[in-house]
Amino acid sequence: MVLDVTASDLHGKKIFHTSKIYMPQATDSRSSQMVLGPDKKLGLIRDTSIQPFAPKEETIEIPLPEGVTDVDLEINLTYQPRPGDIYPIHNIKKRVSLDQR
Question: Which of 53, 75, 95, 98 is deepest in the core (most CB within 10 A)?
């Protein structure tokens, strides 16, 4: 699963983008470097995968340029079992105002 978060100003200029990958991370047990492929995985070092029916909450801080108070957010959650294979799961587009008046 991959979470992509993009923030744009009201003119459509992208001001922020980040991606977060949720998956079990494995090593060959000889180093701390992550390895891919079932023939090389000997031990899980961390599991950040999203579990079925379990809520997952993320906090992402978006630094805004001076004077920007309204942003258009686009959030995409996709399943990507292999590079190039992208299956959309969820998409949200929302305008957010940070004006504190």
Answer: 75
